[in-house]
Structures are given as structure tokens and as C-alpha cells.
Here is the input.
Amino acid sequence: MQLTITRPDDWHLHLRDDAALSTTVPDTARTFYRAIVMPNLKPPVQTVDAAIAYRSRILAALPETMTFDPLMTLYLTSDVTPEIIREAADTPCIHGVKLYPQGATTNSEAGVASLDGMMETLETMAEVGLPLLVHGEVTDRDIDIFDREAIFLERTLGPLMQNIPALRVVLEHITTKDSVEFVKAHPEMAATITAHHLLYERNDMLAGGIRPHLYCLPILKRSLHRDALIAAATSGSPQFFLGTDSAPHAVGDKESDCGCAGCYTAPHALALYAEVFEQAGHLDRLEGFASHFGPAFYRLPVNTTEVTLIREPTEVPMARPFGETEVRLLKGGEIVNWRLA
Ligand code: DOR
Ligand code: ZN
Here is the structure.
């Protein structure tokens, strides 16, 4: 059995930089034509020039036989002025601005401690139609890590969307039923959903031994939340679309006293999503989720080429080279039912 769909795009991706690009860029470009590239480098991508330079480094790592269009983003800090927003909106390769609450995740030290001083910048984004891509978690130490996403909706995102209703928002990598309901209640917004949050719940990470390669942020939640994510992703609603949040870390940085957050899924992401859609009995809805709903939200054309998945039990490689070391794949060494043709 095989499945041919419009070539998909990845609406949330970490490619990293320098030596990592020689693995991450082809790993994504083998499946996806475009990807929204996250700006959480060190230092963060905060200017149009930095985004353009990063895009050139990405394209320099693209093998000649492949095609790929990196869609760039800026990292929101108080240095991102309304002028920079206007310049970004006039720059064809820039498609969004990422909000990292300070301290929420990898390289978020430069992120936003409070939105209070950001209103002019955010209003300008609404005016020029540049989407805000949101890491939706509060970071207060007194809030339980499993509640951080739900509380963010209540304390930060709800009020923001009331204050600036014209702001175009993507709630990234949603992990809770609360977020599914929040998105449905705001028909003008969208959300991305990762393969790992569809495949796993927190018991998979913590029961019977700790599995650092399943540790990501927002953290895996209990199974009722995963069920809500599967229902949303496979519902056919254009508000929910594919964003892998593929986030490679060197194997030693994951298997460590203080392990980094992130799952590397770029090479086999489409096969992972296909498993979820097939299990839910909605394989026919994979194409909308992977290839149609993202471009509709971002006001871009749908891709004109296709990819084919073949249903054949296939072992996931354990690891890929990553600079001087390697990065483990999600489900490395396990069997998945699909592979790219
Ligand atoms: O698991 C994650 N890894 N979540 C994020 O929000 C960031 C990402 C990374 O950059 O490593
Ligand atoms: Zn991410």
C-alpha cells in the first residue's frame, strides 16, 4: 500500500547552525519543501540581516540535488522595534516572530519576561499581518511544569488576544486539551502539533525508567491530553497543522545530569505522523494537516510536487551525525510502519 500526497511543509523546526546544518538541512529537505525555522540560536536571530545571513548558511548546506525553502523568523526581545517589524514584513523570506517566555526552553534566556513593554511591537505585527509564533508556557517556579501551558493561556495569551484581536497567532507545539479548546474558541488562530506529542504521554517518558530522548518542552502530558491532540490533528480542522519541533541535541547533552529538551524527528517525521493518522482511522486527512492547512494560514501557495509514503515495516536508524558527535532519533532502533518512497 502506498500514499501519495502534496509535498508537506514543517511549520516549526530547529535546524541549529554551523556543522549541524549538514545533517539537519538534508534530513528535513528530503521530505519537506518549506519549514518555519526557529530563531533560538546563540545569539538569537533578532534582526532582518541576521535572519537573511542564517538563511544563506542553511541554503549553503543544502545538497544540490534537493530543493528547500527556509521560512525565517525573528526572536522577540525588547530590541525588536516596530521599525524592525515593518522591515521584516517587507522581507519575503521572513514569516513570523517567535515569542519565548524567558527561561521556558532551550536558548530562551534572551526571551520575554513580560509583554508589558512589547505592546507597540505586537500592535505593529497585527497591523502588517506578521504572525506571532508562541511558546505557550509560563515559567514561574511555583507553577507545576505540567500546568505551565494551561496557565499561560489564562494569564498571558487570552489577555493578549483580547487586547490585540487582529494579531495573527500560532500556538506552537500544543500539548493539552486546554490548548485544543482555546484554539477552537479562537477561529482566527492556529496551532502546530508535533509527532512526539501525538505518539507519547508522560508515562512513556517516566514509568519503568527515565527516557531522556522523550524529554521535550512543553513536557509530555497525561494520556487524556494526548487523546485530545490526536482528535484535533485528525479532525480535518484547518486550525491544526504539522510542526515537528524537531530539535536535535548531541546525545551527551540529552543523556546527562541535566538533559536538554528536544526530540529529533526530521528524517522520519512524516512516517511518524502517518502512523498516528492511520491508527486514528483518518489517513485520508494526513494531507490536509501536513500540506494544505499550514500554507492557508501563512497565506502561501500549496506545494506543487508530491511525496509518496510506502507502508512497509521499517527500522528507524538509531542516530545521525551531529557535528563532532551524534543525535539520537525518536524511536531509534524501533519499527515504524511507513517509509518515504
Ligand atoms: O523540546 C524543545 N526543544 N522545546 C522547545 O521549545 C525548544 C527546543 C529546542 O530548541 O531544543
Ligand atoms: Zn521549538
User: Anything to note?
Assistant: The mean pLDDT is 98. The longest strand covers residues 306-315. Residues 14, 40, 105-106, 135, 216-217, 245, 247, 261-262 surround DOR (ligand 1) (CB under 6 Å). Residues 10-266 form a domain with the TIM Barrel fold (CATH 3.20.20.140).
